[in-house]
């Protein structure tokens, strides 16, 4: 999917030369001043995003603790205001900016691929269901809650609908009007999504911490702990005794992972749009490759079948883990669940590491050229893969230090150490494989035919009978060509060469199998921690080594990045599969 792009500076320089040829006395500083202001407009939008992100981060983190005089409805008020402003700007963009004359001179074919927009819509649907559950939950006892608790999910649902529609139709736009307003609007949208993400992660972490406390202590001690330390949701003070209320409460907490992923997916797409503001694409060197997604063609089905086995087995492990660890207080069942979890992950991570190494070796023999053209989408994909992997790296290294330095060591500690080491190795090898695949040129079909046959392949429609009639059976007419070194063609051979299916070489087939296996494996490795299987909170080694305050804080900060890494790897592997 490589393409050649002209930088804004180069285009301005060319316009400057043209202007000198027609107007010799035009000042030299005019194009340069535009280029400087372009950088100034970007800097202003970045500063706006940084200040808003810091403000939101301060309020969200402060609202999680009881002793700080910041309540959760203060956070909801800020997020509601930010989402309303973004909604107004999106409407202005769709109605005014994008419809202006010469507003969108070109589109970036790499931005917002269909599988990324499809994933965004999937997460948006679950986010809307979560907002419905929130509205139903808070409406059950609206008399003892602030009105903003009900207004917030309503505004969030509207925000999700409008933003999803905006990204679906405008993700590829390269805007050339209202540049500074568009840059600031996109940065405000990105910051709002990150603020919603931080709020959802904090709310989910507080909820899980309260669930652990409720399971281990009595109700009186639990309320005393809430007063002394971490704040509960304001809804905890109200009575939620009805069955429908409990369904709404448990439902929207189970749907939090989808809302978290939606915010991150939207942030990534908005960032690419921000990079494309004012961008000029050279259509003469911008080769658009229309790649077709064929899931069940040209594969051996080995990767799909093995990946499905891993996926189904992981779902079974997740169910057993939830039942024996989160719903039972017996230590023996907890040890059995942890052992089963670690063994499954060790096997899965080991297979994924070996497969990634094999894929990287196959790339060494790949004859396709490297795509070295500018591509903001690919640059962002690589940066997100490398950055999000740091979260899991941090957790793994903290676990390794705690296990090695702790005594005594048991079987679960040995499994935990192996799990941490394989997690580091798998992330590293998978990043190498994905980055190799993203930087490869799309495949070109191999036609092992002579020159005269290649010319015939260039025709859109070929009449086989007509070609057969035009090729004489006798060698008299073909004598000059054979004398000149060209081999004579028999009509039957020509027909077979034209009608023969195009073969895919073994390297592409193996790369497709590897990509599909890794894709399905990453899905289950995303599902397990996102829906409650978090051995970091259930293994006593790290808790005893780092303490009940430090270790949960480390996991709460780093684990969301590890969860996002898995889902972003799924999207990147799908692109690698299609490119293979």
UniProtKB/TrEMBL annotation:
It comes from the Eukaryota. InterPro entries: Otopetrin (IPR004878). Coiled coil: none annotated. The keyword Transmembrane helix applies. It is found in: Cell membrane. Belongs to the otopetrin family. This is OTOP2 protein. It comes from Spizaetus tyrannus. The gene is Otop2.
């Amino acid at each position: 999917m490589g393409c050649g792009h002209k930088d804004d500076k180069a285009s301005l320089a060319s316009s400057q030369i043209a202007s000198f040829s027609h107007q010799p006395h035009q000042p030299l500083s005019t194009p340069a001043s535009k280029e400087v202001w372009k950088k100034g407009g970007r800097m202003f939008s970045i500063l706006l995003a940084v200040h808003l992100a810091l403000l939101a981060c301060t309020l969200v983190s402060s609202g999680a603790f009881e002793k700080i005089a910041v309540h959760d409805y203060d956070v909801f008020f800020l997020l509601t205001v930010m989402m309303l402003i973004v909604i107004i700007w999106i409407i202005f963009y769709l109605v005014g900016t994008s419809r202006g004359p010469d507003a969108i001179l070109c589109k970036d074919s790499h931005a917002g691929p269909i599988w990324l927009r499809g994933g965004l819509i999937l997460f948006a649907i679950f986010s809307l269901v979560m907002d419905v559950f929130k509205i139903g939950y808070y409406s059950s006892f609206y008399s003892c809650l602030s009105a903003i608790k009900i207004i917030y999910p309503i505004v969030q649902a509207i925000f999700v609908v409008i933003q999803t529609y905006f990204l679906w139709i405008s993700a590829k736009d390269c805007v050339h009007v209202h540049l500074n307003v568009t840059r600031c609007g996109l940065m405000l949208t990105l910051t709002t999504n990150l603020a919603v993400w931080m709020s959802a992660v904090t709310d989910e972490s507080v909820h899980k911490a309260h669930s652990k406390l409720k399971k281990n202590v009595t109700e009186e001690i639990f309320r005393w702990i809430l007063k002394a330390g971490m704040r509960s949701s304001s809804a905890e003070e109200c009575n939620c005794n009805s069955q429908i209320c409990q369904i709404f409460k448990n439902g929207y907490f189970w749907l939090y992972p989808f809302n978290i992923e939606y915010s991150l997916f939207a942030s990534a797409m908005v960032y690419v749009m921000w990079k494309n503001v004012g961008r000029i694409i050279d259509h003469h060197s911008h080769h658009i490759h229309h790649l077709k997604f064929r899931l069940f063609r040209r594969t051996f089905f080995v990767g799909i079948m093995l990946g499905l086995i891993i996926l189904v087995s992981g779902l079974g492990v997740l169910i057993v883990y939830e039942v024996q660890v989160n719903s039972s207080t017996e230590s023996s069942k907890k040890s059995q669940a942890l052992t089963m979890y670690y063994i499954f992950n060790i096997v899965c991570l080991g297979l994924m590491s070996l497969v990634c190494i094999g894929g990287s070796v196959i790339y060494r023999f790949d004859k396709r050229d490297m795509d070295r053209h500018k591509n903001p989408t690919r640059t962002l994909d690589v940066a997100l893969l490398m950055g999000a992997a740091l979260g899991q790296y941090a957790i793994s290294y903290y676990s390794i230090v705690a296990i090695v330095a702790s005594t005594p060591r048991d079987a679960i500690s040995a499994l935990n150490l192996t799990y941490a080491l394989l997690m580091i190795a798998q992330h590293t090898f998978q990043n190498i494989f994905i980055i190799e695949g993203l930087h490869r040129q799309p495949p070109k079909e191999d036609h092992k035919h002579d020159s005269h046959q290649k010319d015939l392949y260039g025709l859109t429609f070929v009449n086989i009978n007509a070609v057969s009639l035009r090729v004489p059976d006798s060698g008299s007419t073909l004598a000059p060509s054979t004398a000149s070194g060209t081999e004579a063609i028999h009509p039957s051979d020509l027909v077979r060469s034209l009608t023969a299916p195009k073969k895919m070489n073994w390297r592409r087939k193996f790369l497709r199998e590897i990509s599909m296996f890794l894709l399905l494996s990453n899905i289950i490795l995303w599902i397990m921690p996102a829906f409650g299987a978090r051995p970091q909170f259930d293994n006593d080694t790290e808790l005893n080594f780092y303490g009940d305050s430090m270790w949960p804080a480390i996991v709460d900060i780093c684990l969301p990045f590890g969860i996002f890494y898995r889902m972003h790897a799924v999207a990147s592997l799908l692109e690698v599969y299609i490119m293979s």
